[in-house]
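#struct-queue
[09:14] JT: dropping the first one here, sequence first, then the structure tokens:
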Amino acid sequence: MIERRTVFRAAMAAGSAGLLAACSGQTGGTAEVNQAHVPPKAQLTADPAVNTKDVSVVKPVTVTVKEGTLTEVKLTNADGAEVKGELNPEKTTWTSAEPLGYGKTYTYSAKAKGSDNKTAELTGSFATVTPAREVRATLNPVDHAEVGVAMPISVKFAEAVTDRAAAQRALTVETSTEVEGAWAWLSDRQVDWRPKEYWPANTQVNVSAKLYGVHYGNGAYGKADVTTTFTIGRNQVVKVHTPEHRMRVYRDGNEIANYPCSNGKDADPNLNTPNGTVIVMTREPTSIFDNERYGYTDLEKKWCCRISNHGEYIHENEENRANIGKANTSHGCINLLEADAKAYFDSALIGDPVEVTGSKANFPTTSDVMDWLLDWETWKSMSAL
């Protein structure tokens, strides 16, 4: 799309008195006619120009005058409603102050008084872009959430994003404490931001995704802006070294709990509790577990904290009491005694890190929550900018 800036000059029509004077042949009559036909000095320009198509809905519309001041500017939609706008202090530029609608026609009209005291006028219309598809995005954590120190910020799109750089440029993260972090695309529908190290405790975070009007490629555009404000809670980290059969909980680096546990079977890498840093994803007072391959369905367990989309949880398993603290016999979950599982459940926040070591297998990087399974250099390389 090529846009041209259009310049308008308003001509002053000659009155009948001026014409009579010109015909009389009296001195000064011709000068009056010439003066009447001199165009105003004020020059009005608009961006976008008259009849421009496919105009961005977020780029501000401007009306500018040279050699004069603006006296009136209106930008209206097809229903006649005016678009908000502001004049600069010199009254030489008017700028729209709100986004436009997709697939709409807008009309502007403006007047300016020039240094010669003559009035110049501008009128015209333009049309905004019509998306082939409007794509919705969601943002997590949600507003006012309190989360753990490993919680990533995640933007998910309803369909694949072709122009990832354009989408990423619309994303900003502001923190109350300086935090080094970066965006990384985990798929063509998801981009996450995580800090280089765990978040500082009690950090306030504001995220803005100004995605309305952003072209994702192939005619798809952002449907709406999304924002969130959340808080990082206390620093709590879970550490499990699977051969020890213990689950240790640390606050600010100090051990505050040490629970006996039974982890995934050591002999079978498919049943290990895998190595890696994951996060508490959900807190479920009860959960139903099914795995027909290993002979159980509709198995209900209490005080369950999901730690991956690979199937691992921290949960109560009184049926495995004989092995808790002694042997690794689960199918990948971290089994606790009921009282310990309840105590841990009550202490946990979504986004708390869980660090697992000592297993034969590593967590796969196929989950949509695998942010801490990647080293920092790899993470940064997954940015689109």
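[09:21] JT: and here's the second one, same format:
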Amino acid sequence: MAVSLSHPTRLLASTVGALTVTAGLMIAPAHAAPATTTAPADSVAAVTDRIAARLASEFADEARQTGLLSATSTDPVPLARAAEGTALGRAVRDADREVLEAKGLPQDGTSLLTVRLAHADMVDALRRGTAPLVASSPADDAPTTVTAYDHTGRRIALAADRVPRRPVYLVEVDTATALAKGTQVLRSTLSQRGLSPAAARAAVTPASGYWATQLTSIRLDDDHEPWHKGDAEIFTITAGFGLDGKVKVDTTQLPYLDEDGRTYYPNQLLVHFSDYKYNLADIVMMEEDGGTNYRDLALALTRALLTIVDGGAYIPLVDAIINALPDGWWTDDPDYVDSWYTLSTSTGGTLRGAAGNGTMTVAPYWVAPL
């Protein structure tokens, strides 16, 4: 899912030279300068682009033999399925290590790279024998073209706003796994700097109980989803003042929130007020878009929030969190989706986000003692 941003981001530019439009496919003529990318060589975007080029050309036969390039399904296939001891297998392992580094995640052997058929409408063309292309999702949130590769390694520019007639496989990051590991990095880093509420929550005794905010329904506005973007993973950053007067930050995953324009009914606990000195907290909703560097995000939040001092009255923290987010990451920005100010223990009803992109219904929830 691609969620349009209300928060300004620095977009990466790409140069593809003159293009010729043919049957819904934009192909760079032979005399044109090859398409280039501004993504740094050690970014997620650069890694996925290199793997896409190699899957299209030198590793094409091996990729088909190992079942990486499914001809009938748009479900992602882990690239780690590549045969061990082969050149393709070694290339995938190296690429996975680079992706983990670029995302600020531990080098624990996790494989994040996947490949999928970009759109279900491409299945018929594959069955007719049309030679597929391989691409990676652009780093830019609003690209005009997507760079793909054919079996010779030639770069072909595809229109980003319409589904190509030629089949395309997309190399991507498994954002669900990345988010699960990334939130662990965020919590660990924030905890080391005294910004995590985990200790306060653990101190709540079974005999006391506490108030929480329950998320009963949520909906994000229907944004026109480009063909080259898969489901995104949504998470929230919740902040308030802890019992010690320091800002406390927690993260929550919303793994069910796959589609814009659809209402979900999770009944999920979103804010735990046992964590906070005041009965108020703020929420910022973000989207993991493939290139989020969680180590950098945690450090940016730390630098911004450690300077905020409790003055005896609640201070909204949404602006501080948003201002802490770097203008540009190595690839896709961790997209700002929306924010909600000063939720309290008594907040209930339907709440429209400050950015106008999300609507959620919440209710006070008493977490009873055991």
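[09:30] RK: nice, looked through the second one.
[09:31] RK: The two ends are 39 Å apart (CA to CA).
[09:31] JT: good to know. Confidence is low (pLDDT under 50) at residues 2-37, 329-333.
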